[in-house]
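Protein modeling request. Please complete all fields; requests missing the sequence field cannot be processed.
Requester role: graduate student
Desired output: 3D structure, C-alpha cell encoding
Chains: 1
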Amino acid sequence: MMYRITNELPTASEFVQLRVDCGLSFRDVGISAKALQKSDYFIGLRDNDTNALIGMGRIVGDGIMFIVSDVAVHPTQQGQGLGKVIMTHIQKHIDTTIDKTACVTLLADVPADQLYKQFGFEESAPASIGMMYKMK
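Delivered output (136 residues):
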C-alpha cells in the first residue's frame, strides 16, 4: 500500500473512527475536535488512493510534561511497519523540539509496548507506576 505522511490534523470524526477501528476506546467527536487542536505534534498516514486516515500518533504537552498518545494503525494495514514509521516521526519530534529536561510518557497496551521499547521508552516500575483515574 502506498501512503503519504502528513502533519495536518484529521477531522475529529476520522480520529474517532480510526481509534474505534483499532480497538481503542471511543471518544466524543466534539471533545476530540477540541483535543486535536491542543496537540503539540500530530503525524498521520493517509492512503494515496482513497485519502483515508490509516495511521496516526500525537504528542500532547505543556512544555514540561508530554504524553505520546493515540498511536494507531488500521487493522488492515498492521504488520507492514507503519507503527515504526509513526514512532520514527514522533521520536524525531521529541529529540529535536522538546526540552531535554521535560518528561515524555505514554501508556502502552500490550503487545504495543514492544514497539515503544524500540524507540527508547522504558517501563518506569518499580521507581514509579502508571496510574489512571477511572471516570464514573
